[in-house]
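It would be a great kindness if you could assist me with a short task in structural biology. I am sending you one protein, given as its amino acid sequence and as whole-number tokens for its backbone shapes. I would ask you to consider whether the tokens describe a fold that such a sequence might reasonably adopt. The full record is reproduced below for your convenience.
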Amino acid sequence: MPFASVIAATDLTDRSAQVPGRARLLARQPGARVLLVHVLPDEGKKRRNRDEIEAALTRVASDAGSNGIRVLSGESGAALAELATTEQAGLIVLGLHRERRVLDLLRLTTMERIVLAAPCPVLIAQLPPERPYRQVLLATDFSPGSAAALIAAARLAPEAEFHAIHALEPGSAFSRGSRDSEAALEKAEAARDAFLRTPGLPTLAEPPEIVPGGVHQVLAFRREELGADLICLGAQSGKDPQTLGNYARDLMRAPPTDVLVAKAP
């Protein structure tokens, strides 16, 4: 089912160049709304700046086929979350993160705050939107969040082929026959079986793979092997809904391709 309303958030730089076109491609049903949005940091910005931004958004919206613009003020996460709720948006599309080496170590990035605040999945778009996604790879911990990401990916890319992989990271090196390793594998297989019973999951090309190793290495190998053009994953790890998983943070800050992040419903 396509999205009836999509928010395309842009900072009007090259980092967001693919956002309007991708959002337009995803809002396929007749009458679907694509809102092109820019968030000013605070209310103190001069009126001239707002006028210039509105003019720039209007030009971009016209070129991309968007059917509305908004200039918001305040903290980006809260502002976009409020708009998404008001517009009943099914998706927020963002561009690439602007790296700030020192600040990124000390606080959440703007992108991370948006994902935590958003009432809907968030897509980080960097690929040219000439064609729909073809190969979707779920990096899964078998949590409700990763199930939500896969279900959302099926809405983004209904004609894609879907794959899932789980990196098994036991406390020590994995060894077949080892009691600890076998117990970890058995636990992961039980979690996989429960995950596959989640209502609404799209059909997978093969059962989710459970591969011993570090999550970065396992995902990178499988992504390259598949030529995956969309990676999806759950936002959180553990039980704190206000905390991003470490891997989600790493992937969002340096995405190897387009990335979809979703929270548990």
Q: What stands out?
A: The chain has nine helices and ten strands. Residues 5 and 185 are 41 Å apart (CA to CA).
